[in-house]
C-alpha cells in the first residue's frame, strides 16, 4: 500500500498490539488511517448472540477501514487483531495531506477500494443465490485469482471457522461441504489444508 518511507514522513504512531485486541468498534467515528506492518486484522460484526461475522481479513502491507474516513461516517464493523500485530496509525488530516501530495498513491488506493467493492458485490450475490458448494468454490477461485498462480495448486490459508464467518455458512456445513468437494475432485485436502 503506502510505502513505509512515504508514510513515515507524516509522523504516524506505530502501534504494537496483542492478539484479540479491538482497534475500533462498529459505530465509532473514524479519526485515523491504519496500515498493517505485520500481523493480521479482521473486520467483524458481532450479532446479539456474540457470534462474529467476518467482513474481511487484512495482513502485512494492507490498510483497512478507509471508506468511513472519506465519508466521515461511523465504522460499519469493528477491527480486531487476529494475532500480535504492528501497524501504522496516521491521523486523518495527515492522511489526506499525504494523498494530495502523492496522487499516484491516491489512485492506487482508489483501485484497491474498487476491488473490495467488487468483492463485496460478488459475496452478496453468492450468499443470496447459491448453495454452500457454489459459495465456497467461487470464494476460493476469487482468492486464487487475486493471490495465487494458475500453474500450481492454491493453498486456502483460512480455517473452516473463518470460511464460515466470511461466507455466512455454519461451520459444520463448511466442514461437510469441503469433504464433498474433495470427494468430487474440486479441491484437494492435505491434512487440514485445502488446495485448489
Automatic annotation (TrEMBL):
Q: Which SMART domains match?
A: cNMP
Q: Does the keyword Transferase apply?
A: yes
- Mind telling me which GO cellular component terms the entry cites? cytosol
Q: Which PANTHER family match?
A: CRP FAMILY TRANSCRIPTIONAL REGULATORY PROTEIN, REGULATORY PROTEIN YEIL
Question: What highest taxon heads this organism's lineage?
Answer: Bacteria
Q: Domain HTH crp-type: where?
A: 130-196
Please list every transmembrane segment annotated in the UniProt record, as residue ranges: none
Keyword match Transcription? yes
**What molecular function terms (GO) are annotated for this protein?**
DNA binding; DNA-binding transcription factor activity; kinase activity
Under which name does UniProt file this protein?
A: cAMP-binding domain of CRP or a regulatory subunit of cAMP-dependent protein kinases
| Domain Cyclic nucleotide-binding as annotated: residue spans | 5-116
InterPro entries (UniProt xref): cNMP-bd_dom, cNMP-bd_dom_sf, Env_Response_Regulators, HTH_CRP, RmlC-like_jellyroll, WH_DNA-bd_sf
- Tell me which UniProt keywords the record has, alphabetically: DNA-binding, Kinase, Transcription, Transcription regulation, Transferase
Lineage summary:
Bacteria, Pseudomonadati, Bacteroidota, Cytophagia, Cytophagales
